[in-house]
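Rotation project, supervised by the postdoc (A.L.). Task for the rotation student: set up a whole-complex structure prediction and record inputs and outputs verbatim in this book. Inputs entered:
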Amino acid sequence: MSWQLVAAIAVFAAAYVLIATEKLPRATVTLTGAAVMVLIGATGGDDVFFSADTGIDWNVLFLLLGMMMVVGIARQSGMFEYLAVWSAKLARGRPFAILAMFAVITAVASAFLDNVTTVLLIAPVTLLVCQRLAVTPVPYLITEVLASNIGGTATLIGDPPNLIVGSRAGLGFTDFLVALGPIIAILLVVLIGLAWLMFRRQLHYDPQRATQVMALRQRETIRDGRLLVVSLSVLGAILVGFLTSRLTGLQPAMVALIGAGLLVLITRMEPAKIFADVEWETLLFFAGLFVMVGALVNLGVIKALGAAAAGAIDGHWALGAVGLLIGSAILSGVIDNIPYVATLAPLTQDLVDAGGSAAQPLWWALTLGADLGGNATAIGASANVVLLGVARRNGHPISFWQFTRYGLITTAVTIALSTAYLLLRYYV
Amino acid sequence: MHAVELAVELPLLPRSSSISDTFRLIAEHDLLAVVIIGDDGRVEAIASPVDITRLVLPGYALADLSLAGLLDDSSLEELFTEADARTVGAAIDAGDLGVRGVVEIDADATVLETACHMVANKAQLVRLSGDGTPRFVFLSAVLDALLAARDGRAGRP
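Outputs recorded:
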């Protein structure tokens, strides 16, 4: 083994540890790691900027940028809050019905928005409704973040790992929806059933408090009627753009950027407001990560691992898919699923190239495992960490183990069902 | 003229003061801030009206202003009941109040220098650096001093 290979693996492992332990900002870690990879000659300028296989994945970066801009503008209209309050009233102020409604809204929104954004949108309105109902918001918040991670699995843009898989595998918005939509719908129904079993004793119905929810006037949440109409129109157009991207030849990143541009043009919002919700640190984190993984690909590490994995699978692709699904779920429960998928994506590509159509479902195994595994622990996904912070700041702290207890149950059930789905749909 | 000549002291409150009592004190006396001191007399927090009002208002409405439109007077009793039960000390321990964020300035800073710092930081008051009882300079005092200095140079009455 050359010194270069040893150094590259050591840098990569150290970066993983630093990301997992959050000792340093994660963008700092990956950008420093990328710089070291360049300095030791594991990758170079041409690879970093221009290679589709070993460089920065611009599709992912620009799709994220476009959607961050769109969501940042659209969220200011108050449409999400309107929908949530309307649904709480539709549920007649009944605590469990509201929990189920909020779970569905969160899951559907998460399929199109970043999970962290969705949680930040639903949590405040949940706290308001729970205060009116005089019930603890903890069951609601936990169910919502679980629903968010489940819903985000359904589409190309629902969760960052999906973007990486989609870009690497050449899978589009419709591919994700067709392959994963059915199981995600099932898992959402199952989650609501689990929530009933886990939380029903904490959801006491008080008719008097319910009238306080019914008294809420959802129209008050709309801060800008014109912005609401424009945002809905552009979001609809973006959705059509995603669904027809194969016909039009417009890549999802282009659709998102055109949608963002359109929204900027029509709303004439100040640039400072437009870019306020763009998470530049996340974009740089991705850029550094792609360079680090690209370096390992350059040095043949990923190919060697892929060959070893292909040898172990030995043509038993169904077994391979189950192993990848469960392994990804376990690992994603404890480490960030973005670097995990960024590392596994080129390896999975090697396996799919070797196994052909029989190995194609490995992409779905990786996506389901990495996304759903994030529910397992309080630190399994960024949305979980953010939600726990919101709960604590609002006087309803949720401990690591309190969350993880419910998260583990949900993950075990959803992964078991996903395994059955994968086998039945693709291998029986 | 220098900052030290404009400096005044602010009311000192113990950690055990409730949020609502602090709110009431600020409102009734139009205070720009109060100083929260620990049992040992050390300054633990400098709380402005915005800081204290933030502790009374529901966090969800501050996190999402779209929800602010749903609040009406019927929520007041519940909010003040919570503010009655919580002390400023608890807010300090939770990191909701502190001394950080208050601009400090040297006692010998000129009035114009003080004004620059206040404008740059959008601050209504600044704290004089140094140990001992904390002393503060208000923006209104700075404006008065600047006008007086200008009038003095121009020979106006």
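Student's summary: Residues 58 and 64 of chain B are 10 Å apart (CA to CA).
Supervisor addendum: The beta strands of chain B are 8-9, 12-14, 34-37, 43-47, 104-105, 125-128, 135-138.
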